[in-house]
Amino acid sequence: MRDQYYEQLDAIVDDLVNLTGTVRRAVADATKALLEADAQIAESVIAGDKDIDEATEIIEERALLLLATQQPVATDLRQLVATLRMLTDLQRMGDLSVHVAKVARRRMPDSAVPEHLHPTITAMAAVADSMIDSASRIVADRNVDAAGQLENEDDEMDRLRKDLLRSLLGDSWTYGVEPAVDLALLGRYYERIGDHAVSMARRVVYLVTGQLS
Amino acid sequence: MRDQYYEQLDAIVDDLVNLTGTVRRAVADATKALLEADAQIAESVIAGDKDIDEATEIIEERALLLLATQQPVATDLRQLVATLRMLTDLQRMGDLSVHVAKVARRRMPDSAVPEHLHPTITAMAAVADSMIDSASRIVADRNVDAAGQLENEDDEMDRLRKDLLRSLLGDSWTYGVEPAVDLALLGRYYERIGDHAVSMARRVVYLVTGQLS
User: Fold this and answer.
1) Minimal Cα–Cα distance from A181 to chain B, Å?
2) Helix or strand (DSSP H, E) at B203
3) B194, B154 in Cβ contact below 8 A?
4) Would you give per-residue pLDDT tens digits along chain B (213 residues)?
5) What is the DSSP string of A95-147?
6) Nearest to A93 by CA among A128, A140, A58
7) Nearest chain B CA: its distance from A64 CA (Å)
8) Number of folded domains that form chain A
9) What CATH number corresponds to the domain at position B130?
10) Which of A36, A69, B96, B97 suits a disulfide with B26, CB 3.0-4.6 Å?
11) pLDDT (tens digit, 9 = 90+) per residue, A29-67?
12) Do residue A77 and residue B88 have CB atoms under 8 angstroms apart?
């Protein structure tokens, strides 16, 4: 009975880790659509979100079924509850990718990001990608030591977002209000993607160490 | 045993509904701090967030304990899981109030909102307040009929946010980039507060009807 429980739990965690890969691609594609003003990629990110939602719901149903049929307690219970919450994090990261893709789409055929800010957005997307990857490995291996690095990456994300805001608000900003509004929101979306990765990692840390970080 | 279960579940739901009241006050106070540039109120919202976090954690622990000791199945299980998720919604609404209060604080002694946009922000805050109130009553009474009104309020929130963005991007905008960036983010924060209220209501609707709206 217990062996079967862990087998099913492992399968659920595997699927969650796979979904993390899908979300990573959504973030990367949304960024590509944004920087290259590529309408086709933007549409594919927007349309693809329903796959992330569906995958989330399927994994969620299986977790609830396992909860109901095997009635885990203590750490096993906490792990299943943590899994349900991480699914919410992943779903939100998918939604945020759609927001990025929609900003991209609204400004086509131009890019919503002025050329000199491409490196900043590229860096934010790279940090987000690395953060989701770290979170995914922390979930897969329950390696809480890797969580420290993720907090560093989160600091880097904050730094990049502040740089971005400083650019928009500096005297050398000559693009007017509309691109500034887009970029302020884009900065917020990437920051939130990173926050959700941190939130996933913290749930694992809490499971393993019993400490809220 | 079952009676005791429902008694404990009712107590948890009561506490969740009470917490909803605290979150409503945080949103209202943050708005007051923003429009009146009141530093003291802004600080109290920022400091008060840890109370919301602590209350969330206490209710969460009790829900997990009930889950572990009484091992509910079927609808009872789903209701407890829904409760855990609604706690996450409430915690996020608290965080978003802090974001509003921090924008207010950053622009003091001025208000971050130009006078002619006070009515729009006041309206967004009023809709958010009414949405949290609706969500709270839907949770307390499991009255799914009220959920329809909440979706209307959500449409109203979207409309207000679009109005706000149009103001920022119109030719008559003479305040420059910085207030526009603040207002774009503020609009996003109020919209997200409303989204979390909708998310709470949808969880109740799903529990009662078994239908994802």
Assistant:
1) 5
2) helix B177-209
3) yes
4) 678 899 999 999 999 999 999 999 999 999 999 999 999 999 999 999 999 999 999 999 999 889 888 888 888 888 898 999 999 999 999 999 999 999 999 999 999 999 999 999 999 999 999 999 999 999 998 888 888 889 999 999 999 999 999 999 988 999 999 999 999 999 999 999 999 999 999 988 888 876 655
5) HHHHHHHHHHHHTTTS-SS-GGGHHHHHHHHHHHHHHHHHHHHHHHH--TTHH
6) A128
7) 8
8) 1
9) 1.20.58.220
10) B97
11) 999 999 999 999 999 999 999 999 999 999 999 998 898
12) no
Option in B71, B165, B181 nearest A169 (CB): B181
- By CB atoms closer than 10 A (0-12, 13-18, 19+), residue A158 is middle
**pLDDT tens, residue by residue, A175-212:** 999 999 999 999 999 999 999 999 999 988 888 877 65
Q: What is the rounded distance in angstroms from the CA atom of residue A185 to the CA atom of residue B190?
A: 14
pLDDT confidence tier of residue A146, bands split at 50, 70 and 90: confident
The two structure tokens encoding residue B130 = 């009414």
The residue type of A117 is L
Best to test chain B binding among A173, A181, A185 (most B CBs inside 10 Å): A181
Whether residue A77 and residue B84 make contact (CB cut-off 8 A), yes or no, is no
Contact between chains at B169 and A185 (C-beta distance less than 8 A): no
Number of Cβ pairs closer than 8 Å across A and B?
A: 63
Read off the amino acid at residue B128.
Answer: A
Contact call for A180 and B185, based on CB within 8 A: no
Q: For residue B205, what pLDDT is reported?
A: 87
> Do residues B42 and B30 touch, judged by C-beta distance below 8 A?
yes
Tally the residues of chain A.
Answer: 213
Q: Which residues on chain A are in Cβ contact (under 8 Å) with B81?
A: 64, 67, 81, 84
pLDDT at B138: 92
Residues of A in contact with B181 (CB under 8 A): 165, 168-169, 180-181, 184
CA distance A12 to A21: 15
Mean of pLDDT values over A154-181: 94
Range of the domain at A15: 2-209
Choose among A64, A74, A176: nearest Cβ to B81.
A64
Q: Are A181 and B188 an interchain contact pair (Cβ–Cβ within 8 Å)?
A: no
| Cis-peptide into B109, omega within 30 deg | yes
pLDDT level of residue A164 (50, 70, 90 thresholds): very high
By C-alpha distance, which of B15, B55, B13, B2 is closest to B141?
B13
